[in-house]
Amino acid sequence: MLNDDFDTGLNPETFAPETLAVHAAIRPDPHTNAIAPNIVMSVNHSFLPNEGAFSAQGMEDISDSPFLYAGWTNPTVRLLEQRLAILEQAEDGLATASGMAAITAVFMSLLKAGDHLVISDVCYAAVYEFATQVLPQYGIEVTAVDTSCIKSVQNALRPSTKLVHIETPCNPLLRLTNIQEVSLLLKNSGILLSADSTFSTPVITRPLALGADLVIHSLTKFINGHGDVLGGCVLGSKALISKLRSVAGVYFGASLSAQSAWLIMRGMETIYPRMKTLCESAQTIAEWLENHPKVLRVLYPGLASHQQFSLAKQQMTFFGGIIAFQVEDIELIEQRFAHESRMFYYAYSIGHQRSLAVVLKTEDLDKSTYRFSPEQKAKFSREAGKGVVRLSVGLESPTDLIRDLSHLLR
Ligand SMILES: Cc1ncc(COP(=O)(O)O)c(C=O)c1O
C-alpha cells in the first residue's frame, strides 16, 4: 500500500468543519467493517527490493513511497496527519512526538548558520529558551521582538532573515499577533512565517488562510484535549512539509507513536463541541474575574479591555480557554490554588477537559527564560505585574468553577 493511498473522504469545500472533524478520511475497514480506525503498531513494513529506499536523501517526499519504517511514517500517524491537514485546510502535515519537536523541526530544517530568526519576545518558555540560547550555538542569529507590533517586526528584519515565528495568542500574556499583517509585510521577501496556534486550534483561527506558511500545534493541548498524550504537528504546503519530514522525522527521530496518534485522533473528533463549551465558560469566567475586587487585571482576548480586542474579533471565532489574571497578593493566591482548589488542578500544562491553574511569577520567568532588559521587564510587568495566575478552563460547569474561584479569591 502506498503511504498516501488513504481516501481523504469528504470534500472540505462542501462540508462544515464540525462534520469534517468527525468524518474526514474515515472509511470502514474493508475486512471487518470496523468504523473506528485501526491502529497499525508495526514498526516495519515489508517491501520489494526495487520499492524500498535505504535513505531519505534524494527522495522528493517520503510520504509518496510505500510505508517502510515507523520512524519515517506509519499508517496511523499518516491518517492523523491527513485529518489534521483537512481541519487546517493545509496541503500536508507532519506529526511529531511533542509540540516542541514540531517547533525544533521547523527551526532546524529551515535555518542554517548565518541565517536570522525573528521570534516573539513572549512565547512558550521552552521555545524562547531554545531559540535564544541553543540556536546561536549553531550560528543562527535570533532577535526577539513584540510581534504584536508590526513596526517592531519590520525593524527586526535583516537581509539574512529567513523565518518569523509568532505565537498567537501567546503564552502566558495572551497577546495577539496580526497574522495577516505580518504575512503581508513578508510577502515576496522570501521570509517564511510560522505560527504557533496551540492556544487557538483550527476551531478559532486558521493561520494558513491568513497568509502564514506553516501552522504549528502542540497536540498535547486542546487538540487531543484529554491530558493523556504528548504530540505535535506542523502543517503547510507539501513542498515545505516534505523538507521537514526528511530532516525532522527521519534524522531527529521525533516520530509520533501509533498509539499516541490514535488517541489524538479520538480526542480531535470532539474538538468543535469541546472548544465551543470551554471558550464560552472562559468568557463567563473572565468577565466575572474582571469585576472581582481582588483582581487587578484580566488578560483575555474576549474582553473589551484586552488591548487587541478588535483584532481578536477579526482573527478569532472564539477567544480561547486560557485566561491570565493579576492579583495583589500573588504568594497567598498561589498557596490557595495549590492547596485549596477543588476544581483547578495546580499544573503547568493546558487544554484538558479538567481545569488547570498555575502561578507564573515575572521574576522567575525573567531569571529562567526571558532575561529581560530593564525596558522589556517594565513592559512585561505592565501586563503581568508581579505575576499572573494562568487558568486553563476545562469542561466543568462555569458555575462550579466560579464558586471555586470565589472561595480562592475571598
Ligand atoms: C504555545 C505552546 N507551544 C508549544 C508548546 C510545547 O508543546 P509540548 O508540551 O507538546 O512539547 C507549548 C507547551 O505548553 C505551548 O504552550
Automatic annotation (TrEMBL):
- State the GO CC annotations: cytoplasm
Q: Which UniProt keywords apply?
A: Lyase, Pyridoxal phosphate
Give coiled-coil spans as residue ranges. Answer: none
Q: Which family does it belong to?
A: Belongs to the trans-sulfuration enzymes family.
GO process annotations (BP):
transsulfuration
The answer to whether the entry has keyword Lyase is yes
* Stored SUPFAM superfamilies: PLP-dependent transferases (SSF53383)
What name is this protein filed under? Methionine-gamma-lyase
InterPro entries per UniProt: Cys/Met-Metab_PyrdxlP-dep_enz, Cys_met_metab_PP, PyrdxlP-dep_Trfase, PyrdxlP-dep_Trfase_major, PyrdxlP-dep_Trfase_small
Report whether Lipoprotein shows up as a keyword of the record.
Answer: no
Domain of life, source organism: Bacteria
Q: Which GO terms describe its molecular function?
A: carbon-sulfur lyase activity; pyridoxal phosphate binding
List required co-factors. pyridoxal 5'-phosphate
Modified residue N6-(pyridoxal phosphate)lysine is at which positions? K221
